[in-house]
Design brief:
5-stranded mixed beta sheet, alpha+beta, elongated, 3 helices
């Protein structure tokens, strides 16, 4: 039997669907998007998904980065909101189970953290997930 080799788009689509099927979208003012598809002028709390590594081993695995964009209050970072979104993404990621993720086994690879964007008046809340194909 031939094993299906997944692409980064396959993984990205799976993560986006898991996010859309969760309570995460109801807590953010923006959309869940593929990395690179966010409107540069957006002032919404968008969440982007990117696959940052994908290996070609027999049991494929890799890493996914989630980035939530949190607009500043005037020129000041909204630290309270960043902390809320950090908790939201941490709880979502640690709650992923093999029963609910289909062909993928996800886990939180590093703690969720925030940083100020060097380019725009917004903060970036990032989460890094690792995954393996479940077969």
């Amino acid at each position: 039997m031939d094993e299906k080799v997944v692409t980064s788009t396959d993984v990205q689509t799976a993560v986006m669907q898991l996010l859309r099927d969760s309570s995460v979208p109801s807590y953010l003012s923006g959309k869940i998007l593929r990395a690179g598809m966010r409107n540069q002028d957006s002032r919404d709390e968008d969440l982007t998904v990117s696959v940052t590594a994908l290996d070609a081993e027999q049991r494929q695995g890799g890493f996914v980065r989630l980035t939530a964009y949190i607009p500043h209050l005037s020129e000041v970072p909204d630290l309270r909101r960043c902390a809320e979104v950090e908790r939201l993404l941490t709880d979502w990621a640690t709650g992923l189970s093999a029963e609910g993720t289909g062909d993928y086994l996800f886990r939180l690879a590093s703690g969720v953290s925030s940083l100020v964007s060097p380019d725009r008046p917004e903060s970036l809340v990032t989460a890094r997930l690792s995954f393996k194909i479940a077969r």
